[in-house]
Amino acid sequence: MINETAYALGANRSCIRDLFEYGCQRAAIVGRENVYDYSLGNPSIPSPPAVNETICRILADTEPLAVHGYTSAVGDLSARQAIADDLNARYHAGVRPEELFLGCGAAPELVAVFRALAVPGAEILAIAPYFPEYKPFAESAGAVFKVVPPDVPGFQIDLEAVEAMLTPRTQAIIVNSPNNPSGVVYTEETLNALGALLTRKGQEYGHPIYIVADEPYRELTYGCDAPFIPNIYPNTIVCYSYSKSLSLPGERIGYVYVPRQAADSAALYAAVAGAARACGHVCAPSLWQKVIARCAHLRPDLAAYDKNRKALYEGLTEMGYEMAKPDGAFYLFIKAPGGDANEFSERAKAKDLLVVPGDGFGCPGYFRICYCVSYEMIQKSLPVFRALIENR
Ligand code: PLP
Description:
Elements: H1 4-11, H2 15-30, E1 36-37, H3 49-61, H4 64-68, H5 77-91, E2 100-103, H6 106-117, E3 123-127, H7 134-140, E4 144-148, H8 159-165, E5 170-175, H9 188-205, E6 210-215, E7 236-241, E8 254-257, H10 265-278, H11 286-295, H12 303-319, E9 331-335, H13 341-349, E10 353-354, E11 356-357, E12 366-370, H14 375-390
Parallel strand pairs: 1-10, 3-4, 3-5, 5-6, 6-7
Antiparallel strand pairs: 2-8, 7-8, 9-12, 11-12
Helix pairs in contact: 3-11, 5-11, 6-7, 6-10, 12-14
Pyridoxal-5'-phosphate binds at residues 41, 105-107, 131, 176, 180, 214, 216, 241, 243, 249, 254.
């Protein structure tokens, strides 16, 4: 016999993957340059050159067993110290290495955090639009997954809607800023108000409501900074990843930060480590821990993303498409002309333009495009976008 839930998750591919596979098939027929694939968020800028140089230096200078050996489950002290130093230089956050747990990217870190918080009956809230994987992560942890309706059209956070969904069983709310799929950066004002609400309701319920800050896009901002949420609300657990900031999505490295000022922080940290262990975590990749120990301070060169963002935001807005201002990440979340994003996505697909309908992000009627693509592809695709909005 086979576990039905696991089977269903494995057998039903995501709509994003389906579109991506379709794009590959079409590329084989009509040529890659004639498919405008905005489906998948794979970084398109290279890692900073110092990353690869550092790998070479580590391989040349370090004894092989030390490069590839197991590390402690929470991660090498040198990497955790480098991350703490970097966070403290940027945010004056007072981070200590013992508050950091090195993980294999934001996805498994979120799973560990959800499992650490999944007491019987626990509810975990996400704010629409949200990263679709939150649902299987939370539900497989045993939590009830609830979605706060979107705050249209700006995609900040509708606090009345959050308050209406809080119950004494609410353990956490996931905050993803800069946001996938909207590209919106939550303002300090929004986060202050959310923090005040969670403080008040936590006092009322007699237990903390944690913010799980999912931050793979923290450094990907254009003309603004993403506030560092632990400085705003102490009961914040950060799940961070270098997948996007250093363009290392296949290497699987990141960290969980459990600030000591968070309620029950020592037990929480132990529970995150325990939940990771129960999922088979042994340690984050050893070589990459050594790279991060030397490269935690590096930042991406966002010029190419910014150029793409401007070309699309300005070009599409001028045609009449509507979207929230995309200040971060590498996505635009656009209102479907005519209102039906699935119909729009199908019409676009017929012209080899691949966009993802918003239903899976908890936001029907919108579609996502991911602009980590070539500038040339954007230029070639703009007339197709124009034809789609003009010939409805
Ligand atoms: N959270 C969000 C919002 C994402 O967009 C992604 C990946 O695209 C992840 C988490 C998972 O990232 P990682 O590669 O660090 O597991």
